[in-house]
Amino acid sequence: MNKSSKRFDQIYGEQAPESIPWNSLELPTSIYDLIKNKQIKACRAIDIGCGLGNYSRILSKMGFKMTGIDFSSVATEKAQKLADKELLSIEMYIRNVAKLLNDNAYYFTIAFNEEDDYFEGKGKFRETPTGSVLYFSNPNEIQKLFSPLFHILDLKNIAIPGKNGNHRAYYAFMQKKNAV
Known about the structure:
Elements lengths: L2 H12 L14 H8 L7 E5 L5 H8 L3 E6 L2 H13 L5 E4 L11 E8 L11 E3 L5 E5 L1 H8 L3 E13 L2 E12 L4
Parallel strand pairs: 1-2, 2-3, 4-6
Antiparallel strand pairs: 4-8, 5-6, 7-8
């Protein structure tokens, strides 16, 4: 267990879900639009960094066969209990995500926009009021990081609803390239 996963275990273990800034009960509009516009149909999907599994539960109710993955054992345990309580068949795992990527599969990621001024400070890594550290990015960096392994199908600036207003972020919809 690394320092970050220990900190997230502490956050999920000690704080009420409603006080965790990123714990949203709403599916981001950008994901909803992909489904509504039939760019993504109900299929097997992985919620990476699932936390308490809110998105997994919403998508499961929309017909997706969900797997939730987080490096916090406390979060995944609570996520599984919430899914079971709603009688949803969702698998929750504590995993190293890098080992789970499949060729030609589609992936969706969100990165906080480095120009988001809600979180205090500047730079790539910023501490939140909960003591967790978040990473902030920009479109050029996202292209540079992901393009060697992924075809970037869509990359845009979006707003994500938060507890105290919207957060600025980038969303990337990608397809994994074949391994050479």
